[in-house]
Amino acid sequence: MPELSLTVNEHRYEVEAPIEMSLAHVLREVVGLTGTKIACNEGHCGACTVQVDGMPTLSCITLAHTVSGEITTIEGLRDHPLIDAFVRADAVQCGFCTPGQVVSAAALVAANPSPTIDDIRHTMAGNICRCGTYPRIEEAILHWRD
Amino acid sequence: MELLRPSSLDDLNGGLMIHGGTEVVPLLRDGILKADTLVDIRGIVPRGVKGNRIGVGTTLAELEGSTAIPEALREACRLAASPQLRNMSSIGGNLLQSTRCWYWRLKYPCHLHGGDRCHAREGEHREHAIFANDYCASAHPSDVAAALLALDARLHTTKRELPIADLYRLPDEADRHVTTLEPGEVILELELPAVEASVYLKAMDRQRWAFPQVGVAAARVAGEVRLGLAGVAPIPWLLTGPEALDAATPLPRTAWKVDVARALVRRALDRL
User: Fold this and answer.
1) Can you tell me the distance from the alpha carbon of A41 to that of A38, in angstroms, rounded to the nearest whole number?
2) What is the span of the domain harbouring residue A119?
3) At which of A73, A108, A133 does a domain end?
4) Contact at CB, A125 and B83, closer than 8 angstroms
5) Of the candidates A42, A55, A63, which has its C-beta nearest B87's C-beta?
């Protein structure tokens, strides 16, 4: 099986995976990092969002073998202030979309530490929450440094 | 399946080309595209904006934040897809995306799939075409293509130079393709003329992360006003003027799009 080398959360992984396997699948089933979620599996919902070189990327429609950049998953953001902010704002209901939400939000605040509501709505538009916790997610991001 | 990463355009030799993969990967998974060999072309096509030229590998996210391109193109990129998709997808791939017609996506044996009818014409077609919808009623989803059509962009490929309007063709019984791209031909750069003013307006079912129900780009280029529309025909549609909407041939449940297009064209021209 084709070999590939991935850098995930600053760790190097040498693994084997078929060419057609998605990054999400490799992260979850081969590397063993199950924080990244697969929901729609067709690039619509954002649950599978990871950062590649800091850019929010849909891992469910990214072929693992095409990734050469550094990957950051929710496991790599364990100590990010956004985690506490999401808890303070009670921005989690079922929680399935939350890893993707936090990964996107971390890229947003890295580029723009004081985002407005409009910035948040534009930049977080690719992360769907079917519980509808959007107002609390916005609140968590607005006050992420408090 | 194998994955090739050629080091130059000269090394291209068949296979299915992939850049951001946002269209190719789902279509492969659904069995609509089939390939034994994928060719990652990210390393060999131009990327970035230089003067009036845009490399096809430039992502929509990069263009959304660029002050070096006309307003209509920037806005079309900003309103397209979702942030993650804009980070991943190239402008070249955006021009070559397939229809969102659900019959096509669900592999109904429609005209575009080589079948003998258009299922949308008799079936569910609220989001379908109002022009040139006789043979295939699908609606072209590219905001970016509509903007480039209004801006009168030219394409430079590995084989030729052409106006963007000539990239597209209406499918017919003899040829079901909606582009004129030849096998192995790669679009490399987009070239923009001097644009005096431009605007892009988009009607969607929700305000973000949606395909255009109707997208209207208007541009003033060399004193001439040009209108490019998304979501109204199987290919990006050049409208000769607001009155051309009187010649629309909507299906029973796409008539509403004519009214939306009329309103957006009027607003776009007001803002030019």
Assistant:
1) 6
2) 77-142
3) A73
4) yes
5) A55
